[in-house]
Amino acid sequence: MASTGHDRQWQLNRLNFEGHWCGTSRWYERNTYGRLDLERAAVEIPGTCYAISFSDPDTGLWDGSGLRFAPQGRRRLPLSRASYNQAGQCWQFRGVAGQSSLAVDAGQPRFGHELNFFAGRARSMLVLLYEPCGSLWRLQTLGVVPFRCSLAAVVDPERPPRGDARQHLAELEGWPGQIERLLPGQWPAEDPEPQACEPFRAAAFRNGNPVAGFDDGLLCSLPELLPAGAFQLQVGCRLSEGCFDQLSLGYDSEQRLTAWERRRFQRS
Fold this sequence. Notes:
The chain contains three helices and 16 strands. By secondary structure, the chain is mainly β.
């Protein structure tokens, strides 16, 4: 049993991320006309790999190659229980994890998120980057990586290729689900029991925003321009024919993160 909430987040970090994760990363960006092209990747990097290992219960190493924003595409970072998540931006559910900007901050060059959905030894990653555009923030870049762990005895197969996002959402309509919630800076020492939530509704996922689908079953509903007040970001992943995980990020009227909400919907 974890002794503190910090300890439990560190344990979940290892449970989720330990492995040698490789895949082709695809980066979708705005073209010369300012249009965000989500159909054709502007940059494609075969052999993006994250080797995440732990030498003991308190120490590890993150070793990345084929990276989009690192010098020569390489970066190595030590990991330790003592220093983990000092900024409070990392968050861990069992099977869904990542890191998020805690607020829209005019003093920062980006407002960004990394979201990972795990199933077996598959890891589906989506990166969202907003950048300033006048007085507002505009979605500038999306990165997608369908990782597979090369250390697995049997490598997880590829999922069906991306299709029509609205059709995918329509297939989920009415599926029953359960919800878990994390609040910034409030990490439970034990995993709370998931609670029943409203059945999946495609309209609630879309929330009036454009919807896009990508490789590995990834779906998202995001505002291209962040509003001046409260907003939500919706991301999900079809982990199997009968299971869909959704991650909702809610920001209040002061544009501060209020909660990460993980919903799992399963076909009845």
